[in-house]
Design brief:
- It is a single chain.
- This protein is mainly alpha-helical and 189 residues long.
- The protein has 8 helices and no strands.
- The chain is 80% helix and 0% strand.
- Helix 5 packs antiparallel against helix 6.
Length: 189
C-alpha cells in the first residue's frame, strides 16, 4: 500500500470512528486529522473537505461489499454477511441515508445486490426447474424490496436478527419461484 493510500485509509478509519459519535455535518477536518495524528495540510492534500473524504470512502465501500461476498457459498450467507457488515458500520450507513437517501444507499449497494440477486434467482430457478427467462421486472422488484428492507434494518425499524430476516425473505422467494413454476407447468408438459 502506498503512503498516499495509507493516509487516505487512515482518514477513512478516523471518519468512521467519528461517525459513531456524531453526524457527518458536525465532523470537522481537525477532528479527523487529530484522530489520525496527521497535519491538516495532509488532509487537504487529498481532500477539499470531509464530504469529499466520505465520497471517496463510499466508492471503496462498494467494492469492499463485493469482496465480502466472494467467499459466501449461498445467497443466505451473502445476505447475512452484508447485514452483519452494515450492522457493524451502522453510523456510516445512516450518514449515507441522511446525506443521499435511498438512492445513495442503492448506488453503494448496487454491485453487491446485483450479484446477490443473480445468484438467488439462479439458485431457485434451477431448484424449481424454471427455465432462465429474461424477466426485466424481477431483479428491479427484488432490489427495491431488498433496499427497503436494508433501510428499515439500518434505521432500526426492523427488530429481527439477521437470521430471521433472511428466513422470511427466503420464504417469500420460495413462494414466488413456486408460483412461477406452477404457471409454467402447462407449457412444459
Amino acid at each position: 500500500m502506498t503512503n498516499e493510500n495509507r493516509t487516505k485509509c487512515s482518514l477513512d478509519s478516523a471518519l468512521r470512528t467519528l461517525l459513531a459519535k456524531k453526524p457527518l455535518d458536525q465532523i470537522r477536518v481537525r477532528e479527523v486529522t487529530d484522530l489520525c495524528a496527521i497535519r491538516r495540510q495532509s488532509f487537504y492534500y487529498h481532500f477539499p473537505d470531509v464530504y469529499a473524504l466520505y465520497d471517496w470512502s463510499l466508492e471503496r465501500e462498494s467494492a469492499a461489499l463485493c469482496r465480502l461476498q466472494e467467499d459466501c457459498l449461498t445467497w443466505q450467507q451473502a445476505l447475512g454477511t452484508l447485514l452483519g457488515h452494515m450492522t457493524e458500520q451502522q453510523p456510516y450507513y445512516l450518514a449515507l441515508l441522511e446525506l443521499r437517501g435511498q438512492e445513495g444507499l442503492a448506488r453503494v449497494l448496487d454491485p453487491a445486490l446485483d450479484r446477490l440477486l443473480a445468484e438467488t434467482v439462479d439458485y431457485y430457478r434451477r431448484r424449481c426447474g424454471v427455465p432462465a427467462e429474461e424477466d426485466p421486472a424481477g431483479p428491479v422488484y427484488w432490489k427495491t424490496v431488498l433496499l427497503a428492507l436494508l433501510e428499515g434494518w439500518l434505521r432500526g425499524g426492523l427488530a429481527q436478527p439477521p437470521e430471521e430476516l433472511i428466513r422470511r425473505l427466503e420464504v417469500s422467494v420460495q413462494r414466488e419461484t413456486l408460483g412461477a413454476a406452477w404457471q409454467n407447468m402447462a407449457r412444459w408438459a
